[in-house]
Amino acid sequence: MGAHERDSEGGREGAPPGGGLTTGEVARRLGVAPTTVRTWDRRYGLGPAAHTGGRHRRWTPTDVARLERMCALTATGIPPAEAARTVLGEATPRAAPAGRAAQAPPEATPGRRTTDASRPPSQPPPARARSRAGSGLRLGDVRQECKGIARAALRLDAAALDELLEAAIVEHGLVAAWTEVIMPTLQAVGRKWESSGEKYVEVEHFLSWHVSGALRRGAPPAASDGPGATTVLACVPGENHTLPLEVLAAALAERGLPVRMFGAALPVESLVTAVRRTGPAAVGLWAQSRTTASRPLAQHVAAMEWGVRGARRKPVVLTIGPGWTGRTVAGLPRPTGLAEALALLESVVSR
Question: Which of 106-120, 173-187, 311-325 has the lowest mean pLDDT?
């Protein structure tokens, strides 16, 4: 018997016997907290149609389709009570034969996945799938977790968003979670904002804030440092996009490497003072826009010396971010991604 067949018969580890999905599995699929699913059941009557012999609750594909419809409606700003009335008032189709299911238009049940003989309705989708959140937020070919995070962000659901972000970081590690889950979702929200007349600015700000919080909660305490053993990270003057630099700071801390983070739009005089006071092994200068990337600034910081006379040292300056594209500074490394920046900084600090 294959893995797919075992899954469809309820053979998943932790699933109740007899098939169907547990409340936790449904919550992960929808991108909401389990408490949200239970609240919708208790308050609005959107619970599963069947129970097991004990207290287990099993959610069928039809049950899940109703919750997906609920998610799609609340993601557009409809209050939960009104969305629930709409869902309950709609004719929810029973499990249809395979031939009829293939003819059903995707608009009939937003978010509902098609099925075939090789993938029973109760089987979770692959780890990576074409995904679209409830209000037309196109995510493309991304990890399935992106769908849940996008839905939680669109609903402005703080509790669910925190839970999903932290779960992604724990499961995949910080670098993979950022590269394959968080960043694609942020980019999709940004595209939605640009194409909708700035209707989703609050979603982008909300998601960015919670990502920042998840990074800080997940980072270990700052490692002790000394001259020549730390990394200074700062946005160049005029640059306010700090999130990618926050990820790099968290990843360095995760590896036990000391880091001093100075955040957005650090004035030139303050950056120079920080470098002189800390004597860093490396300085990472982030620029999101070409209008803020400054070659003279990077060259000036790279030429700074610190340490006792006769044993002077200079920091290695990394120009990080898309703003440095086409503005390469001779002799200064320009990593193209988080993993490359981490590798360079680890190498510099270890020397």
Answer: 106-120
| pLDDT tens for each residue of 211-235 | 999 998 877 777 676 666 899 999 9
Using the structure block, give the residue that is written with the tokens 């980072």. 219
> What is the tally of structural domains in the chain?
3
Among 127-141, 235-249, 276-290, 316-330, which is the least confidently predicted range? 127-141
* Whether residue 179 is found in the same domain as residue 245: no
CATH of the domain at 339: 3.40.50.280
The number of residues making up the chain comes to: 351
Q: Which CATH number covers residue 181? A: 1.10.1240.10
**How far is residue 144's CA from residue 132's CA, in Å, rounded to a whole number?**
10
Buried b (16+ CB within 10 A) or exposed e, 298-319: beebbebebeeeeeeeebbbbb
Contacts of 24 by beta carbon, 8 Å cutoff, 6+ apart: 14, 34
Does the pTM exceed 0.70?
no
What DSSP designation does 217 have? H
Q: What DSSP line would sit under 35-53, residue for residue?
A: HHHHHHHHHH----SEE-S
CA atoms lying within 13 Å on the CB side of residue 21: 26
pLDDT at 245: 92
Structural domain includes residue 110: no
Separation CA 119–CA 102 (nearest Å): 13
Helices assigned H by DSSP within 219-282:
243-254, 268-278
Q: What domain range includes position 286? A: 231-350
Are 239 and 332 members of one domain?
A: yes
State the CB neighbour count (10 A cutoff) for residue 13. 4
In a domain, residue 166? The reply is yes
In eight-state DSSP terms, residue 313 is B
DSSP 9-27: TT-STTSPTTS-B-HHHHH
Q: What is the pLDDT of residues 309-324, one digit of tens each?
A: 766 788 999 999 999 9
Q: Is residue 114 domain-resident?
A: no
